[in-house]
Amino acid sequence: MKFECVALTHKGLHRKNNEDAVYCDGWMRNLSTDQPVRVPLSPSPHGIRIFAVADGLGGHLSGEMASQLVLSRLAETAFGTDEPVESVLTKFIEESHKELVELSRATPRHRGMGTTIAGIVVSSIGDVHIFHVGDSRIYRREDRYLQLLTKDDRPDDGTFGDPESVSNAKSMLLQCVGGVGDLVGIKPHVERINLGEKPEVFLLCSDGLSDMIAQDDIEEALADNHEKTVSSLFDRVCRAGAKDNVSIIIVEVLRDVSPADDQAAPGGHETSGVQS
Length: 276
Fold this sequence. Notes:
Blueprint lengths: L1 E9 L9 E5 L2 E3 L7 E2 L9 E10 L2 H17 L8 H22 L7 E10 L3 E7 L3 E6 L2 E4 L14 H6 L8 E2 L10 E6 L5 E6 L1 H4 L4 H6 L5 H14 L6 E9 L4 H6 L12
Helix pairs in contact: 1-2
């Protein structure tokens, strides 16, 4: 498998600090950057690649700690064993949830600390697992359109009886990692999807992107160059006000192509800069 990854995380135009964090297969960042970063990927010894965004909750230091802690735990998680990936991911999220809840209870200044998370795990044989809790999202690019692969852990607007409640629905979370939940009250979303023969492109983001601009606007920003896509998305968020932290990761996954296959399909996908 070959991979290309471009990422950006930023505090936005109104927040004083960045409670988001991004993780790209060993590379983690929460410091704001105005330009997208093409992440260098080292060879993977176990054939597993992991990419994720986390959006911290609880305010200032608590949110920063929560998002970075859960991504650090993800980096420490042992994949490539006999245990199914679904079980490994579920256990990682449940244990991270328990740790954050216990920290929140033990330290009053961190009361309510928590984080969303959304990520993908890709194996060397082409298995892809998506996982998420909260309202950070994962999209799959299909030509010039995006397929939303996750469902926000937010109440449906139709379940609210008055206009004020409906307008508040988007700011509420049914669950997150940590927060004010109990030690067993989290249900991680983990799903296996099939990877096609053609190059696949995934977009991971915090709600600082998806709440600020519509999916149609996100699709309009799509370009063949991933840095241009991320830059365009960030520019659109800033023009819309960038009221929240914003994090964006684009991951392209393609199967290895033999020289014979490459010659048989002239004009095929450009692989320059893609890491194995």
